[in-house]
């Protein structure tokens, strides 16, 4: 059935007045500060001012340090969101209390998310020549904002706990995590979709993530189905182990999953194909995250005594894999890696886990894509066992052949657009599938 959008208006979105920062100058200033700072001193963030005499500037995070490189600066400049960081900095400069600062952080974080969604969906001015569906400007603009917030020295006492709370508020609001709100009434079906930030940026700092692009394209949209309209709400998650350890997935999804009719966690997976991941494992394999940290061990969750080694998708995988959803093949992936009961060595199981086995990799591997799938489906099983949901792995988003330096090219744009539209169609098929399919 062809996809359609209902002519139902979106919720009102906050708007932020544009500014005109000189990003080339800011990047050069940051590089100069790094070069001239004494050993152990932290340079101000791009565009940030030095702290007052005697104050200690926080060291930039691993992610923030990447921001001064030319490719992120170009993406910011061409992506329409470069004014978000300076705008937050000005608002913080006017804040004379923690309450005012928290309000400014929440307002500017939400505005960044809403602007990124509007840009991806073709609403309002693009304010830059990168294709509207690009997810990378949101990532780099958020890092610019967090760097400025962390470097900010207020005119009032601000302890570490208060600053951490401000940082968390900015993270959640700028990712759509605190704005997953469905309209009331029983006639509207409700869909939750999640995506991820770009990752492996030390391998190629130009990388985007089609799952994040899909979240931006789908947030707040409507899908027509035979059983009535379906509203999609979406959010994006960081590629950081510690945020998952801290319960970010559960805080975001626990309020909405019991009300949902369908959910899909989405991430970038294998080259040239989609996968519906049948099984998710309770194991972290240790691949470094965006903070260059590694974690290995059982996925830490609340009530570990009742924690299963495996969870399973309840998405209608047969219907999805049989449908014509787009140019990429969609596979029902049942393979896992387990330690069989009574054994000590991991083995690959193409048809799924065996009874009593210990997880070493789900269908989606042993990284954060597997972990968000595990956490979301475990949360479903604990709070709303009847809700269809699971994990969708997209194809890898690739640049055109021979492009090793440009931040975009026509093939990159075409590939992202095709992946995003196929995610939309997969969600549509899942909504239309009869129970048990």
UniProtKB/TrEMBL annotation:
Q: Could you tell me where the Pro residues compositional bias lies?
A: 41-55
Q: Where is this region: Disordered?
A: 36-82, 342-364
Its domain of life? Bacteria
Query: What keywords sit in the KW lines?
Result: Signal
InterPro entries membership = Peptidase_C15-like_sf (IPR036440)
Q: Quote the biased-composition stretches of kind Basic and acidic residues, using this chain's numbering.
A: 62-77
Give me the segments passing through the membrane: none
Q: Where is the signal peptide?
A: 1-41
User: What Gene3D superfamilies does the record tag this protein with?
Assistant: Peptidase C15, pyroglutamyl peptidase I-like
SUPFAM superfamilies with a match to the protein in the record:
Pyrrolidone carboxyl peptidase (pyroglutamate aminopeptidase) (SSF53182)
Its name, as the record gives it, is Pyroglutamyl peptidase
């Amino acid at each position: 059935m062809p996809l359609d959008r209902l002519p139902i208006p979106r919720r009102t979105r906050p708007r932020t007045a544009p500014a005109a920062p000189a990003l080339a100058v800011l990047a050069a200033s940051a590089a100069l500060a790094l070069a001239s700072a004494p050993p152990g001193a932290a340079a101000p963030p791009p565009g940030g001012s030095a702290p007052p005499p005697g104050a200690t500037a926080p060291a930039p995070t691993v992610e923030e340090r990447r921001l001064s490189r030319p490719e992120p600066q170009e993406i910011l400049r061409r992506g329409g969101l470069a004014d978000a960081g300076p705008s937050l900095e000005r608002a913080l400069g006017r804040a004379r209390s923690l309450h005012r600062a928290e309000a400014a952080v929440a307002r500017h974080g939400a505005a960044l998310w809403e602007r990124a969604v509007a840009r991806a969906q073709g609403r309002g001015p693009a304010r830059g020549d990168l294709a509207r569906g690009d997810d990378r400007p949101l990532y780099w603009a958020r890092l610019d904002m967090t760097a400025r917030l962390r470097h900010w020295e207020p005119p009032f006492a601000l302890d570490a706990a208060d600053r951490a709370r401000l940082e968390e508020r900015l993270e959640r609001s700028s990712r759509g995590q605190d704005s997953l709100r469905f309209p009331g009434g029983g006639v509207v079906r409700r869909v939750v979709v999640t995506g991820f930030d770009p990752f492996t940026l030390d391998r190629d700092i130009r990388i985007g993530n089609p799952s994040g692009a899909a979240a931006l394209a789908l947030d707040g949209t409507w899908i027509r189905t035979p059983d009535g309209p379906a509203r999609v709400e979406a959010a994006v998650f960081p590629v950081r182990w510690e945020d998952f350890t801290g319960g970010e997935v559960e805080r975001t999804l626990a309020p909405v999953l019991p009300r949902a009719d369908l959910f899909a966690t989405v991430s970038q997976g294998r080259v040239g194909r989609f996968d519906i991941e049948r099984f998710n494992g309770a194991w972290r394999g240790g691949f470094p995250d965006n903070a260059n940290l590694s974690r290995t061990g059982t996925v830490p969750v609340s009530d570990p005594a009742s924690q299963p080694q495996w969870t399973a998708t309840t998405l209608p995988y047969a219907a999805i894999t049989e449908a014509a959803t787009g140019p990429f093949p969609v596979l029902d992936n049942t393979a896992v890696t387990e330690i069989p009961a009574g054994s000590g060595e991991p083995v690959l199981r193409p048809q799924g886990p065996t009874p009593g086995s210990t997880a070493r990799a789900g269908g989606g591997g042993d990284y954060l894509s597997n972990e968000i799938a595990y956490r979301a489906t475990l949360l479903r099983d604990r709070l709303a066992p009847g809700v269809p949901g699971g994990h969708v792995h997209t194809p890898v988003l690739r640049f055109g052949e021979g492009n090793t330096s440009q931040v975009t090219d026509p093939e990159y744009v075409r590939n992202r657009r095709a992946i995003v539209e196929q995610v939309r169609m997969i969600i549509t098929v899942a909504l239309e599938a009869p129970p048990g399919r």
